[in-house]
Amino acid sequence: MGRWEPISEALYATEIHRCDFCGKMMVRRLWRLDYMGRSLQFCDDRCERSWFDYWLPRYGKEHGFG
Amino acid sequence: MKRGKPLDSVSLTIINNYLVNVCREMGLAMMKTSYSSIFNEGLDFSCVIFDRDGEMVAYAEFCPAQIGAILYTMQWTIAEVGLENFKPGDVIMHNDPYRGGCHMPEHTVIKAVYHDGELYGFVGNIAHVTEIGGKAVGGFAADAKEVYQEGLRLPPVKIVREGKYVDDIWKIILANHRTPRISWGDFHAMIGSLSVAERRLGQLLSRWGFDEVLAAGKELMDYSEARMRAEIREIPNGEYSFEDWIENDGVVRDKRYRIKCTVVVRDDEVIFDYTGSSPQARGPCNCTYGVTASATFNAMLNITDQTIPRNSGCYRPIRLIVPPRTVVNVEHPGPSVGGNSEIHERIVDVLFGCLSQAVPDRVAAATGGSSCNFLFGGIHPATGGYYANYHIDGCGWGGKADGDGNHTQCPINGNCRNTPVEVFETRYPWLTKSYSIVENSGGHGRHRGGCGSLRVLRALAPEITVSSFMDRHETRAWGLFGGGEGASGTIRIRKKGDEEWRTFSEVYGTTSPNKFADIQIYEGDEIMIVSPGGGGYGRPEERDPALVLEDVREGFISPQEARDVYAVSLVQGENGDWSVDEAATKLLRRGRGVA
Q: Which among A2, A42, B125, B507 has most CB atoms closer than 10 A?
């Protein structure tokens, strides 16, 4: 289960964070999940669930989630 | 929030129509008051009303290609600026491709609408600003390797604060545009349209009540969602994959980029999974998330009931998976100016290719798939002032189950008008030597693909700087169910005194023959732009001979093509007119297994 994490609002922090499931941009906060030694970021817990339900069974192996 | 009493369907329809018409009136205000021809002739803009949650309540059908991007731009702006920081009279501008936008030229302006001191929502528009600085005149650096070459990037910034201009921001923006007076005029057309919408919304809220109008917006979105879910239920469950290619990125020659999508239909929801698309390109053929979302939403709207009110509710059953750092979801500092104008339509083609496997009677064959983006500018000999223009040409559209593809029309969902020759020649130092439809360029089929066009321009100024971003010059628009491919396009130059038409690679050594920037041409040089044709739908031998005859009479196909491809025998009378030889045609078609 993930947790909310704020995104830096420093003026020099211009990096755009994207969801590891859907690819959408995230603005002020992101949903952080630590899984199998990796740190993943999602829009919210819905994208986390979809990552497990849809993405992991299809693409997980080729991305090292044996 | 107080909840207004539920509205009956008649009242909901009236409010929906009112909101859509407010958006249309915004567009008319922009058309009538703007300075650039891409605004007042091309209508390359969209006008939208959002509620205070950033959900799109209504929009007008100007340029649908922008409707996904403006949604994400709006939602990003609310989140970044913070609702608490909006004040009456504020206008925010934003064109950042990484923050939900389409590409750098598309600028969004947003204004919060209050009624009796309470925030109702937002009005906004997004429009293609012709000149935004950067390395190429006209804002289309087709050989850009990073966003910093593409013009001035604006995160959400207030250009008007509580009704007063923020001069410092205006100075920065206009100092970075080559044609600041045109930008000034176009920006004010955009801001003026927000005032029109603000006034009209105020009238609606006064008449129907604040809570009622707010609630109506929610109900309309719920209604659209329900209608869209019902439409998706009609599509057979399954997974449908398709791919198509971009032929080069303007930076690396002979490298193609794949756009792949798998459409997963599950009852009343659908997933569009772009996994398998090529990694981000070095050149600007990348799409932003907003572009890919727009193309996806539009493809669904293209194949579903046109009477569903267009709002955020339509998108709720749709999920996107768009892997970052690919050609369909560019990351900083990747360039993206070509993604919106050129690749959007390729994505729609890919989605139609997927859905042709599920709902073959609702989709079309591939479009010519190029806006034929041609940019130019310099010092106008008549005025001594700087000018710049973004010129587009239409291409052929794909044939579909119930009809032929359109001829030489702005690619699907771009929806922009072309600039009339008279306006073009009045404003810019070019002579249009010819402008015509290209015979045999539409893909053959039971429903023929639309034909492309041919335009020849002669430079009348001592020097003009030109750029180009075009595609389908090597690849072709594919047909469906036995339909043929559309013809490819080209852009060529004939230097003054030269007899031959040559590619820009041949004459100037550009990496790409169709994606290049900042080439100086001179008075008397001529440019030829040929736009691609659309793919055909169904076997050409099944086309009604009467339609084939009409095609020949109109110059869309030749008599030879009529015989060889369509198996229709035509005879020419003494007056030169053609008619169908019924008996010979019957024999021809019988020989090809067509009754």
A: B125
What total of structural domains would you count in chain B?
Answer: 3
Q: Tell me: the pLDDT tens digits for A11-45?
A: 998 889 999 999 999 999 999 999 999 999 999 99
Tokens representing residue B258 in the block:
């794949």
Q: Are residues B477 and B582 in the same domain?
A: no
Coil, strand, or helix at residue B96?
coil
Q: How many CB atoms are closer than 10 A to CB B365?
A: 32
| Strand partners for B125 | B47, B109
Residue B363 to residue B433: CA distance in whole angstroms = 36
Whole-number Å distance between alpha carbons of B340 and B336: 8
B548 and B505 assigned to the same domain: no
In single-letter form, the type of residue at position B271 comes to I
Separate counts of helices (H) and strands (E) for chain A: 2, 5
Query: Given B172, B203, B225, which residue is the final one in a domain?
Result: B225
Instruction: Please give the backbone phi and psi of residue B580, each rounded to the nearest 5 degrees, phi first.
Output: -85, 130
- State how far the Cα of B55 lies from the Cα of B251, in Å rounded to an integer: 38
Strand B515-522 and strand B463-469: pairing?
A: antiparallel
- pLDDT at A2 exceeding the cut of 80: yes
pLDDT at residue B2 in the model: 47
Cβ neighbors of B363 (< 8 A, separation 6 or more) are: B303, B352, B353, B355, B356, B400, B401, B480
pLDDT of residue B339: 94
Chain A: closest CA distance from residue B288 (Å): 10
Q: Is the domain of B412 the same as that of B548? A: no
Question: Using the beta-carbon criterion (under 8 Å), do B275 and A18 form an inter-chain contact?
Answer: no
The pLDDT value given to residue B4: 57
Host domain of residue B560: 544-591
pLDDT recorded at residue B5: 66
In a domain, B580, yes or no: yes
CB-CB contact of B424 with B491 (8 Å): no
What pLDDT was estimated at residue B1?
44
- Contact criterion met (CB < 8 Å) for A23 and B331: no
Inspect the interface and report whether the beta carbons of B79 and A28 lie closer than 8 Å. yes
CB contact under 8 A, A23 and B321: yes
Instruction: Give yes or no for a contact between B210 and B120, defined as CB atoms under 8 angstroms apart.
Output: yes
B436 lies in the same domain as B554: no
Distance from the Cα of B73 to chain A's closest Cα (Å) equals 10
Interface touch B322/A23, C-beta < 8 Å: yes
| Rounded (10°) angle between helices B210-233 and B9-33 | 100
Q: How far is CA B367 from the centre of its chain?
A: 12
Which helix (H) or strand (E) element contains residue B334? none
How many domains does one find in chain A? 1
What is the least distance, in Å, from the CA of A18 to any CA of chain B?
A: 7
Q: Do B490 and B476 form a contact (C-beta atoms < 8 A)?
A: no
Contact between B331 and A16 using a beta-carbon 8 Å cutoff: yes
Distances (CA, A) of B225 to B34, B268, B273: 35, 10, 21
Chain A residues touching B76 at Cβ < 8 A = 25, 27
Mutate to test the interface with B, among A22, A42, A50, A55 (most CBs of B within 10 A): A22
User: What ipTM goes with this model?
Assistant: 0.97
Distance from CA of A19 to the nearest CA of B (A): 8
Interface probe for A, chosen from B84, B321, B327, B331 (most Cβ of A below 10 Å), is: B321
Task: Tell me the β-bridge partners of A33.
Answer: A40
- How far apart are the C-alpha atoms of B543 and B15, rounded to whole Å? 45
User: What digits encode the pLDDT tens for the residues B257-269?
Assistant: 999 999 999 999 9
Closest chain B residue by Cα to residue A18: B324
